[in-house]
Amino acid sequence: MRRCGTAPRQTGGAHPPLPGDHELAIATGAATRRYPGETANGDVWTVHWHAGLCRITLVDGLGHGPEAAHAAQTALTVVPACPDLAPDDAIRSGGRVTRRPRRA
């Protein structure tokens, strides 16, 4: 598997126009909420465009609170940092970057 650095994250909204005569538009939105009594939410999402392709990423930080939120945000960096990864490799990489013991 190829190692990648970090890249900026794009969230929601429309993408830049595609080259050629075709233009594609996608509208995105999501709703999440933190667990009652917690200060943070471990469920995140993003939309990332690369080379005319759209990848929508949903991450469940497994657990509640700040640790789950941090794990989810960390996993979310994989797709924009490594846009050429196959979906299964992106999932494995997301798990790898967040692997550390935490309560769930």
TrEMBL record:
Matching InterPro entries, A to Z? Answer: PPM-type-like_dom_sf, Ptase_RsbX
Q: Which domain of life is it from?
A: Bacteria
Q: Where is this region: Disordered?
A: 1-22
Q: What is this protein called?
A: PPM-type phosphatase domain-containing protein
Record organism:
uncultured Chloroflexota bacterium
